[in-house]
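WARN no homologs supplied; continuing
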Amino acid sequence: MLSLGMAAVVGLAAVYVWDGAGMGMPAWDMTTASLFPHRQRNVPGDMGGSWWLVISMWWVMMIAMMTPGAAPLVLLHGRVLMRAGTPAPRVAASSALLLAGYLLAWLGFSVLAAALQKALQPAGLLSGMMWWSRSAGLSATLLVAAGLYQWSPWKRTCLSQCRNPVMFLTAHGRAGLWGAFVLGVRHGAYCVGCCGMLMALLFVGGVMNVVWIAALTVLVLCEKLMPQGAWIGRATGAVLMVWAAATLWV
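OK structure emitted
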């Protein structure tokens, strides 16, 4: 049941994003497969949206992209409670609060991302209708920053916490519903530390670009779930830095 519930959350969020997240234009219409979106033709117009709408767009997008990565911890937590003889309704409530805490951390990220978007758009650095970078300098800066971060000790520490749900639950688990919520917030904070810079790459390829959303989602899952995840992260960092140099060259 926990798996089905999380799948429903991800599915509903993905459908909302695909439909445009309240922005009045389907996400597919804001999608390009280009490696250098700043070279694409700018589409005149303003898809700014209200402050709260932009925050909600980012948050629902993060729910769709990041919830699968939290599934191992949520499911493990639920199994531990059930084996301890916890009643099913309390297991469901505890798991829901754990996920809510996790997603609250990503709400904090979404507020920061929305603020950055609101700063970049008036400066003409994002395409008015497509929300991808119009500046080689901005694209290269974000790519190299994300690439360097992939090799940083902060990335390594946060990724190790995300990759080991058993260790994380043993180290940070607390009894009760409040303990589950706090566990989720803490796990979400590590996840933001692990993946936040990668999510910032949406400003390069397009905030609502389905191709980039899918690619980043797959990358995050590979880093967290595959045995070679740590090496995948470092290899990605090297690719991003080369990509940054190419962005300035083309």
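The chain has a mean pLDDT of 91.
OK
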